Amino acid sequence: MARSYFWTMLSLILHQVDAAYWREWEMFHVPGGIQGFLIFNLAAIALVLAGYRHVLLETRLAPRYAAVCAALGAGTFLIHAGFALAGLEQFHLPLSMAILGLCLACAAWLLRDVRRVRGPLARRTA
Description:
Blueprint: H1 2-21, H2 24-27, H3 34-57, H4 62-85, H5 94-125
Helix pairs in contact: 1-3, 1-4, 1-5, 3-4, 4-5
C-alpha cells in the first residue's frame, strides 16, 4: 500500500502546484482568495503526509488514511471533470489533464490496496 499511497499523494501535490497556476481559488470562490487556498493546502497536505507516515509504519489507522487519500484523488478528478463539462477552460493543458488522470488512476490503485489490506485486518480483529 505504501507505493500506491505515495503515487496518489504525489499526484495530488502536483495537482495543487498546477492549481496555483490556474488560480483554482477563483474557481471554488475560496474565502480569502490565495490566502484561503494556502490554508486549505496546509491542512490537506499535512493530512496526506500524516497518512503516509501511518501507511509506512503500518498502524491500525493506515487503511483509513489511505481511503481518505484515495477519495481525495478520485474526487479531484471528478470535480475537475465536472468543471470541464461545465465549460471552464482551466486545466486543459496536456500535463494538467495527465495529472488529473493520474489522480484517478492512482486513487483506484490505492483503493484496491486498501481493500486487500482491510480484508486480513478485519478477520484478525473479529
